[in-house]
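Re: beginner question about structure tokens

> Can someone show what the tokenized structure looks like for a real chain? I only ever see the sequence side.

Sure, here's an example I had lying around. Input first:
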Amino acid sequence: MWPFKRHARDDAALADARGRRGFLFFGGRRFVADAPYMLPKDDAELNRLDFQHYMLRYAMRGLYAPPLGQLRSALDVGCGTGRWALEMAQVFPQARIVALDLVAPPATGAPQPANFQFIEGNALKGLPFADGAFDFTHQRALLGAIPEAAWPGVARELARVTAPDGWVQLIEPAPAPQGGPGMSALAGWVQQASMRRGINTMIGSQVSEFLRQAGLQDIHTREVEIPMGGHAGRLGVMAETNYFTLFSSARNFIIAMGVTDAADYDAALAQARAELDQGHYVSPYYMAYGRKG
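And the corresponding structure tokens:
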């Protein structure tokens, strides 16, 4: 169960949530129950995930880094909206592209590529695929969903379902930028709330080590520093928007856990906007990929 600090105003939301399978509702945001993930699973967060996808694709100048060649199959673990997998299905129409997540992406009404498939699953409980099922296994931005102690096991699962000579790629963020009091307070509250769930948001830089521990070879690493703010043009505006949308999404989780209150959180969020306007910050991501021998 989630270690939330209960408030009287949440009683109706809790009663409503118990009647809906698999979700809890706080402050109008929907969260997956019995999962360590601290961000909601609702339309607003899905929009942010799509936006984050476009930002990372722009910053990395593509969807993937390893030399894939004639790709036959790929798996996206923790697919979110499925955007990455859908685009891979279009780039590689001859390949089977599978997307996996706790919750199915919302139906858009648009036709899906014939080579795309969604499967519901939880990487923390093992991947529902045979050994060596995929040429390429991809996972990104799950730092807030995987407890620190579970990372080595998850990396081994990614390697297990990857075929010999296939590739595994991980992308995770660095800790949130800390500047003045506002930005530092937000970063500290997120880390405090996450650690209560066993999640360490400081370990994004260890993605290459997780791949190495899983037995992968030819490991390549890259740090992608995304500038934040209007001074950095289109990419900077995208990074700033993602930053504030993410902290807005985390707000109800952090307040419900009693880490801070709404007034202090909102004040820090406003202060962080002023700090970002006055300084130059980057949002770093760590990317690593390795080959299965």
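Each token stands for a local structural state, so reading them left to right follows the chain. The domain at 8-291 is CATH 3.40.50.150 (Rossmann fold).
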